[in-house]
Specification:
single chain; 241 residues; alpha+beta; OB fold (Dihydrolipoamide Acetyltransferase, E2P); five-stranded mixed β-barrel; two-stranded antiparallel sheet; 4 helices; 41% strand; elongated
Length: 241
């Protein structure tokens, strides 16, 4: 009876562990890029995606205390490396047209490091829960992610925004006028015209999602484990009677 009770406790812990994993924020890699310039502690440039802003963190400015240290810490993590970006599904970009992302970098063949969370935990940046899809309290510091042999489905989402630019040109015209009294004077007039030009700005977001078979396999495993536990509990209760 004691062995069965121990087995029951272990199985219950396993089930709660599975639910805990699924209770964390959904991890996804939308697009990857190669980092070629770190701007400051929360912003960098990567090819081919352009400028990236780390979601829900705020680093000190470079002229503020801790600003240079934050940039150096981010540089050591990602400079010259491949990064894996989970792009904000809600707005994609901020008002400065930077991609808002949770950023991951590979630390070994199986795991990715959550750069946003690492910078927060090591006090290089401040937590700033902005309006986006992410919930920082549900982030994991490490995520399991193996690229080899993964079946992926690629989804492209194109977002077009209208940018407006105002161009002002000035034309100066000079006239030389001679009066009847042989006095010459100059008249200068300035003509200004303003033209507003609007053009579309398009960003394509690429999302890679796991094959649905993996998701359904996990569901089946969870159902089987729960069914086994319920059967075991029922069996123990009947024997006690």
């Amino acid at each position: 009876m004691k062995n069965r009770l121990t087995t029951l406790i272990v199985l219950v812990i396993l089930v709660f562990g599975i639910f805990k994993v699924y209770g964390s924020e959904s991890f996804e890699v939308d697009v990857t890029g190669s980092v070629y310039k770190v701007i400051d502690g929360d912003t960098f440039d990567a090819f081919p995606v352009g400028r990236v802003r780390l979601a829900d963190v705020n680093a000190p400015e470079l002229n503020e205390k801790g600003g240079v240290e934050a940039r150096e810490a981010l540089s050591k993590l990602i400079q010259g490396k491949k990064v894996y970006l989970d792009v904000d599904d809600k707005y994609v970009m901020d008002r400065y047209y930077r991609l808002v992302c949770v950023v991951y970098v590979r630390i070994d063949s199986e795991k990715l490091l959550n750069v946003n969370k690492w910078l927060i935990e090591n006090n290089y940046v401040y937590l700033a829960d902005f309006d986006n899809e992410f919930t920082p309290s549900k982030w994991n510091l490490y995520e399991y992610y193996v690229e080899e042999g993964r079946e992926m489905t690629t989804i492209s989402m194109t977002i077009t925004r209208l940018l407006t630019e105002t161009i002002t040109k000035s034309l100066t015209k000079t006239l030389f006028v001679t009066s009847l009294y042989n006095n010459t004077f100059t008249i200068t007039s300035v003509i200004s015209s303003t033209v507003t030009i609007s053009f579309p700005y398009t960003v394509t977001k690429i999302r890679e999602t796991e094959d649905n078979n993996t998701y359904y396999l996990w569901i089946i495993i969870m159902v089987l484990v729960i069914a086994f536990i319920l059967t075991l509990i029922l069996s123990i209760s009947l024997r006690r009677r």
